[in-house]
Amino acid sequence: MSIFNLLRKINSVKEAEKLSAEQIRLLQQKRFRKILRHVLAKSRFYQRYYQEHGITTDKVDEIGLQDLPPINKSIMM
User: Fold this and answer.
1) For residue 50, with 0-12 CB atoms within 10 Å meaning exposed, 13-18 middle and 19 or more buried, which class applies?
2) Contact in structure between 49 and 71 (CB atoms under 8 Å)
3) What does 2-67 look like in DSSP terms, one character per residue?
4) Model pTM?
């Protein structure tokens, strides 16, 4: 990690400390959806697995963490 990225992360943490509980919840949702979009775009395994459970890129804004299907090592293998 570069010094620039480290400083940016530190600043992000400091800014998050000032947020209300609702703002933190919204930030968490935003970050979750960003990760989910990335996974659906980059991982063939997760594209197929999530599609089997009705989770597609166009539905990302409707999906919560609790909506993700469980996964374990045997499924991944």
Assistant:
1) buried
2) yes
3) -HHHHHHHHHHHHHHTT--HHHHHHHHHHHHHHHHHHHHHH-HHHHHHHHHTT--GGGGGG--GGG
4) 0.76
Distance set, CA 45 to CA 40, 42, 52, 55, 63 (Å): 9, 9, 11, 13, 18
Q: Per-residue pLDDT tens for 20-56?
A: 999 999 989 999 999 999 999 999 999 999 999 999 9
- 37 close to 17: Cβ distance less than 8 angstroms: no
